Predict the structure of ABC-type dipeptide transporter.
Amino acid sequence: MALLEINELSVQFGEFKAVDRISYQVEQGQVVGIVGESGSGKSVSSLAIMGLIDLPGKVNAHALHFDGRNLKTISAKERRKIVGADVAMIFQDPMTSLNPCFTVGYQIIEALKIHQGGSKKALKLRAIELLNCVGIPDAENRLNVYPHQLSGGMSQRVMIAIAIACNPKLLIADEPTTALDVTIQGQIIELLLNLQREKNMALVLITHDLALVSEAADKIIVMYAGQVVEVGSADQIFKLPRHPYTQALLRSLPEFTQDKARLDSLPGVVPGKYDRPVGCLLNPRCLYANDKCKTQEPMRQDDGQGRQVKCHYPLNDEGKPRYE
Ligand code: SF4
Ligand code: MG
């Protein structure tokens, strides 16, 4: 059984579907990349899994299972036990996630206390161990510093220490490097992947940067306007994208853009609350859209080899649409 099983999850704010019937699984110890431009519903779908959507947001799902438990039917109390312990999340901006009024040590120890007990001394030792684990030198002294005394990269390491404090089975990292310098970004991704391997923890890496997940991810989920448009292995997605949106994302990567004309392969922006098109949501921006795309929503097609594509005309091996 998959560690996380999501079936037809939707998140709605009034009439607006921020997440629109998405389905995917995460296996134990797997690295999954969720990619898409901003506004594609990547973060909102993860917050829904964590139970962090506030009213008036409405969450619906056919199934939402984690580690054999049905997140839809368990009590709020049980859910709180799971969230933060078995499933943990880190966010884009570590500076806003840490409380500026408390020392690093205090915040790590508080996180430990919520889910596991122990003497003061044991908690402190565990906090030092965690800081060592995320590559923070001079850990014992660092316990006494305040967040503003740390660089962005160091703050994100502290957030990761807090996230892994209870040995989660799943860590969701939402744009974990977007707020950081380019040189630090690689180090943070490497740290996350090392922890994932050491602890055999599943890692969901949410990013707008397809290049970031190209080497790391076992599976890639491409989202557009609240929907999952393609799922496949990194190999499948990078060699032969089947969805026009995935193809356009790939073409916008530096190594694919020797052909400058192709930088414009995806004009426009993700539709918002008031401009959701009829038919396929990509049709106003899609190079290959025809009349059917403008009137009928494409169904998800499964090739039986782990690849799913939500398009009327999935691309062939030459990268051209297969019109009927
Ligand atoms: Fe493009 Fe049509 Fe496929 Fe949508 S269904 S991605 S508009 S070809
Ligand atoms: Mg986001």
Summary: The chain is about 30% helix and 20% strand. The chain has one domain: 2-86+166-321. The longest strand covers residues 16-26.
